Amino acid sequence: MCVDKHNAKVIRLCKWSHPLGNDLTFNVDGSARGGPSLDGIGGALIDANGKIMHLFWSCIGLTNSNTAEVYAIHRACKLISFNQFLAERHIIIISDSKAAVAWVNGEGLGLLNLVDAVYDTRQILLLMNSVSIIFKPWSSNSLADSLAKAGSGLKEERI
């Protein structure tokens, strides 16, 4: 059997691992397409049963991939901090960017244009010690990836 590699689609299998007990996961992602195009961020808050509790996606203008990833984490932290119900729960924010996760967790400041967002995210994390931010590869974050891509062309945020 011959396969035309130009028309073949790659299907990635991923296993969703649910949070434990009453914990929640907030999968976030940034989409930077490069070139002269608008970039987006997105996120999905999911409970232990796989129920989607909250979605967001929005356009962030012209950026780069690191900026988009940090902004996605920052937006999730802001949404959590504004919601008393969420602020009292243990939430794991999952990003597919090792650099962004390292920066917001205190390993350097990242790019100069990200200092404000990184600092603000760190302040939110200090106030809400029940929120943690971890890295997981893209394959476990496909919903957030789709939301970020959808957000790239929006004129206003969707929550």
Automatic annotation (TrEMBL):
<dbReference type="Pfam" id="PF13456">
    <property type="entry name" value="RVT_3"/>
</dbReference>
<dbReference type="InterPro" id="IPR053151">
    <property type="entry name" value="RNase_H-like"/>
</dbReference>
<dbReference type="InterPro" id="IPR044730">
    <property type="entry name" value="RNase_H-like_dom_plant"/>
</dbReference>
<dbReference type="InterPro" id="IPR002156">
    <property type="entry name" value="RNaseH_domain"/>
</dbReference>
<dbReference type="InterPro" id="IPR012337">
    <property type="entry name" value="RNaseH-like_sf"/>
</dbReference>
<dbReference type="InterPro" id="IPR036397">
    <property type="entry name" value="RNaseH_sf"/>
</dbReference>
<feature type="domain" description="RNase H type-1">
    <location>
        <begin position="27"/>
        <end position="150"/>
    </location>
</feature>
<dbReference type="GO" id="GO:0004523">
    <property type="term" value="F:RNA-DNA hybrid ribonuclease activity"/>
</dbReference>
<protein>
    <recommendedName>
        <fullName>RNase H type-1 domain-containing protein</fullName>
    </recommendedName>
</protein>
<dbReference type="GO" id="GO:0003676">
    <property type="term" value="F:nucleic acid binding"/>
</dbReference>
